[in-house]
Amino acid sequence: MDSYNIWLTQVFGTANPKIHKVTEKYGSPKKAYEAISDGDHSVLTKEEQQMLGYVTMDKVHRLIEYCNKRSISLCSLGSPEYPKILAEIYDPPAILYYRGDLSCFDELSLTFVGARNATNYILRLCSRITRDIGRLGITLVSGMAHGVDECVHMTCINNGLVTAGVLACGIEYDYPYGSKIMREKMVMNGGAYISELLPNVAPTKEYFNPRNRILAGLTRGTAVFQASIDSGSLITASYALDEGRDVFCVPPPTLFSPLYEGVVEFLEDGAIPIFNHDDILKEYVGLYI
User: Are 15 and 43 in contact (CB under 8 A)?
Assistant: First the structure.
């Protein structure tokens, strides 16, 4: 199934909900490939028809061979190892490229996100809550960026805890630069890092929002540690709300700084304020812990 899902993502584009509609129309990714390859172009736009000349199954098989040589695992929507919680969202990735162990999402997992330019106060709080949550066997997910994301991942690594990351670039691309060692340690601790993009794709602005839907979709709750009004962390929180997941926010330590004001509206609308790990745990103690 991997080859057909890869083919569909290349014809229709990564993170395109149309992939799921086409698969449903024909009954499976394989049947969709066969029908379209046999000349049924009724579901294709002109641009998608043009892509048929570039995306061949031979190229797909060479990509799979490349992934095998580079120890990159593949996982299609519907396969046993695909995270069940991610499959529940509106537009789940048709294919995941990853290294590590996806079973880290089998039990409770939580997403922690926040500012790249996080203050010392936020980093101290994030580190403490990450450590206290992770010690209970909960997988902590973040976006592999600097600031809060890096704090989450490194706190887990340094304490022997499980963490997983979602990239806004291909799994082979070193972004942020110098993060490959961190990725290796995440895998050694039983976690994983994943992407829906081709292995060597560089990060661009258009990839971050789709990545954020995966961040929110992989877990039961998203916690925002610091966000200005235009922060991408708020997009992740919005995806979580859209999927009926929990949203937690660290209350601003001051109302006079734009560095924190992005979470105010979420708190006013019912996001759960967090001051320590117990504020998160009490939402799940009867279900998981």
Answer: no
